[in-house]
């Protein structure tokens, strides 16, 4: 990779940004040298009911494991996102909603209007008996009510668990049960790319295996037909005559704000738990630093609210900063590949933040779809979710941004709450494909498999050597799993699961996951999760799933399936298994390729050698390495011979 390929800070950014290169160095240096005073000073960016006097109090060591930030502080997250802006910018636009179909009208909410909507929603939840600490599952499309619902939970101290609308009833039921939530907020239907998604019907199906579910609040979004059960409540009916004010619940900084399920290397998704004070501070600070955000400009994070990117950069970060945040219901390339740029023009978007997979798909459709739009409002381009290949980076920079907009490649995770390694537009010269430098307070290190810290230019496993305010605080309902998953591989450090490289200039390059997590179109998927779904099928004896390179998705899913004895590997069954996984988990988990395998390559101790399966999936069959330790080396020949092209 051409590390010499350096894109300097454009002069207009150098002149206007909050931090230049020297400013970043000073800020970062202070955050590392004197974290106590640095973080107490940063805490002033929030409105506290009781201002904290202690910053970080943490230990990653087994004997004394704990993570607390601003623990003596009290605040309410929704008041920070709404109430505190009312005096100064109550009549400015907080939320712009752009619908799926370009012929439909956008909706706009001022801070005052958003405040009223959130309070109303909060009162509806209260009337349903929701109190501080209760878990509320939110299964909504990208409609304004999703923002109202999330912030309403924060207002009354309920813990939201947003489940992506693309997840199946089975996946939804698992997430409802895991956090024992008794209430789900959904809509009749969602709309995406001109198609309807039967969300309410999915909740009905989920309820069959989630016996704890007692109440379903249904937002009327499309007007599509739904069956109402005794547990169901129409939101518009429940909201009638409800007051549009609701006092914010005072919360401890370490009280949970939300749970968000994400895939790990085991079969069961983890409920990543974030708390109130540190998370909000991190969301707000990183949004301001990485994007040099200024109120008055339109900010568009094109993620779904069901992922952490939507939580932190559609809602919490921008709203804490008094931003105008755009929420888009639809797809970037529907009705055609110019749609995303038309939305930019329609709302005069200043910064857009999207994923490499979307860029690659748009790039494939050609430059004409970009050229036919104006985009002169665009000043900054963000990316997140997976490593961005330099080709897509250059296309984004040269074609979309016409060479004038810096690219902010932000590396982070559900677990980290917000951006960890990312450039700052006025401070950082860019290299295509590099996430560049750590945010203040972030102490990344590279370690070798034995845990030895690597210095200078090096490649290794990426760990974070100290806590930061946005760090997750636990796996819901499983304290041991949190410590086990993240702090045992390299004791005393947070293990990210990513590999990385640091170049001669100290720039960080993320190389991708080093564990059994794959990244499909920027969505995290555990290979074990897909395997678990496959083996649930009555004809499947065993399954092994690996990632494979995919032009658009970054990684695709390649599944090897061993059928039960006597079952015919018929093309119908092949199709059926792919549909089965879609149904069990959701469309994002459907295998791109599925190969029937009479046997899987296993060691004598019975461990599947995924290295070999990955090579075959990649088509790299000439260098399968040593197969002599396999219990039955002959299975490899069959796998190679029947590889799915
Ligand atoms: C925010 C988010 C986390 C995983 C992470 C890494 C990959 C995210 C990246 C990136 C390279 C970037 N990842 N951003 N890799 N460059 N800018 O995506 O969270 O869904 O939890 O995924 O995504 O592999 O470990 P999440």
TrEMBL record:
Question: Family per UniProt?
Answer: Belongs to the ATP-dependent AMP-binding enzyme family.
- This entry's Enzyme Commission designation comes to 6.2.1.1
Q: Which cofactor does it need?
A: Mg(2+)
Report domain AMP-dependent synthetase/ligase positions: 83-476
Report the PTM annotation.
Answer: Acetylated. Deacetylation by the SIR2-homolog deacetylase activates the enzyme.
Record-linked SUPFAM superfamilies: Acetyl-CoA synthetase-like
Q: Which reaction does it catalyse?
A: acetate + ATP + CoA = acetyl-CoA + AMP + diphosphate
Keyword Ligase assigned: yes
Q: Which residues carry this modification: N6-acetyllysine?
A: 607
- Record-annotated AMP-binding enzyme C-terminal domain positions: 529-607
Q: Where does Mg(2+) bind?
A: 535, 537, 540
Residues annotated to bind CoA? 192-195, 309, 333, 521, 582
Residues the record lists as binding ATP:
385-387, 409-414, 498, 513, 524
Read off the InterPro entries from this record.
Answer: Ac_CoA_lig (IPR011904), ACAS_N (IPR032387), AMP-bd_C (IPR025110), AMP-bd_C_sf (IPR045851), AMP-binding_CS (IPR020845), AMP-dep_synth/lig_dom (IPR000873), ANL_N_sf (IPR042099)
Sorted UniProt keywords = Acetylation, ATP-binding, Ligase, Magnesium, Metal-binding, Nucleotide-binding
The protein depicted here goes by the name: Acetyl-coenzyme A synthetase
